[in-house]
Amino acid sequence: MTLIEQIRDKARKAGKRIVLPESKDGRMLMAANYLAEHKICKPILIGNAVDITRAAEEQNLILRDDITIIEPKVWKKNELYAQHLYERRRNKGLTIDAARELVLNELFFAAEMLVHNDADGCVAGAVNTTGDVLRAGIQVIGLKAGSTVVSSTFLMTMPDGNVFTYGDCAVVPYPDSNQLASIAIDSSRTHQKLTGEKARTAMLSFSTKGSAVHEKTQLVTAATAIARETASDLEIDGELQFDAALLPAIGQKKAPESSVAGNANVFIFPNLDAGNIGYKITERLAGAVATGPIIQGLAKPMNDLSRGCSWQDIVNTAAVSALQAE
Ligand code: ACO
Fold it and tell me: What is the pTM of this model?
C-alpha cells in the first residue's frame, strides 16, 4: 500500500466530517461524491442546495444524497459564529455588523464550523488563494496550544517508497528561532501522525555543528535548543547540512555524536526560499511525489490546495485532514 492509500484507509476508520467550502467547483463536487461513496470521510458542502445541485448537473454529476449541504445565510448558528469572530477581531477594529457579514464568506464560515465542532476539518484553496485560506484559519481558529506559528509540511514519497517530511515549504517566509522551533516540533508530530514512523528531525543549515559560524547558522542552533527543550520526547538535532543529515557515512564523519545525523526523516529548512526550492528540486530531479502543503499549527485542521489541483488531490487532502483531526 502506498502512503496515501494508508492515509485514506486510516481516515475511513476515523469517520470525520470534512467541509469543502468551495462547493460549486466541479473538482470539489467530484471529490465530495468520491469521499462519501468510499466512506473516507463525511463531506459537507457550503451554499444553497439548489445552486450546488445545478453546478453538479453542469458537470454531469448526480450529487449523492448522503452529502450534507449547509447554507450560511439560513444556518441556525450564524449569530454564534458572528459573535465569536467579533470577539476575536474586535481589537483589530472589526465591528459586529462587519463580523455578521464576514462569517457568510465561505472560508470564514467553514473555519467557524471547525471552532464550533460542526465539522472536524476543512479543505479549500481550489478557488481561493493560499493567503485567503490561511488568513481565515489564523483569524478564526488560531494557534493550537504549544505552537507559535502556522506553517506547513510536504510528505515527499521517494521512488523507493521512503517518505521524508519537509517543513516549512509554503507559509512562513523568514522564521525567527522561536518560530523555527515551532515548525520543527509541529513537522515532527505531523510526520509521526501521518506515517506512523518515529520522527528523526534535522535542523538544516549550511553548517554542521559549528563548522561555520554566522548569524544564520546561529539562528538554527538557537531554534534547535528551543525545540529540544520544549519537546524532549522528540529526536531533534542541528545544525546539520543536508548530506550530514541524510547519509550515514557523512553524518558519522561530521556529527558522530548525533543520533539524527545520517538518519533523518524530517528536514527543517531555515527559511521559505530553501524549503520551497528544496521540495521542488526533490520532486523534479529525484522523482518524488509531494503531498501537501499540509497546514499545521492551527487548533483545527484547515488545509490548503493549489488552484491547479485535481479532484484526487482534494480527496487526499481531505483524508490527511481527517487524520489530523484525530
Ligand atoms: N502563523 C500565525 N499567525 C500569523 C502567521 C502565521 N504563519 N502569519 C501571519 N500571522 C498573523 C499575524 O500575527 C497577524 O496577526 P494579528 O492580525 O492578530 O495581529 C495577522 O496574521 C496578519 O499578519 P500579516 O503579517 O499582515 O500577514 P498576512 O495576513 O499578510 O499574511 C499569510 C499571512 C497569509 C500566512 C502569509 O504569510 C502568506 O500568504 N503566506 C503564504 C506564502 C505563500 O504565498 N506561499 C506560496 C507558496 S505555496 C506553495 O508553493 C505550495
Answer: 0.95
Query: CA–CA separation, 93 vs 136, rounded Å?
Result: 16
C-alpha cell at 286: 529525484
**pLDDT digit string (tens) for 288-298?**
999 999 999 99
Task: Find cell 530553501 and name the residue.
Answer: 274
pLDDT per residue as tens digits for the range 177-216 = 999 999 999 999 999 999 999 999 999 999 999 998 899 9
Nearest partner of 4 among 267, 294, 286, judged by Cα = 294
Contact 111, 302 (CB under 8 A): yes
Q: Residue 298 Cα, ligand 1 centroid: separation in angstroms?
A: 12
Give every CB contact of residue 114 below 8 A, 6+ residues apart in sequence: 19, 120, 121, 122, 140, 141, 300, 301, 302
Residue 93 in contact with ligand 1 by CB distance below 6 A = no
Ligand 1, atom nearest to 132 Cα: 34
Is the CB of residue 85 less than 8 Å from the CB of residue 94? Answer: yes
Is there an atom of ligand 1 within 6 Å of 91 CB?
no
What domains does the chain contain, in order, with CATH numbers? 3-142+300-324 (3.40.50.10950), 151-289 (3.40.50.10750)
Could you tell me the distance, in angstroms and rounded to a whole number, from the CA of residue 132 to the centre of ligand 1? 9
With a 6 Å cutoff on the Cβ, whether 290 touches ligand 1 is no
Output the nine-digit C-alpha cell for 193: 501522525
For residue 218, the surrounding DSSP H or E stretch is: helix 215-230
How far CA 315 is from CA of 19, 35, 67, 131, 268, in Å, comes to: 12, 6, 14, 21, 27
293 lines ligand 1 (CB under 6 A): yes
Measured in Å, residue 137 CA sits from the centre of ligand 1 at 10
Q: How far is CA 323 from CA 6, 19, 98, in A?
A: 11, 14, 34
Question: In angstroms, rounded to a whole number, what is the distance separating the alpha carbons of residues 83 and 96?
Answer: 7
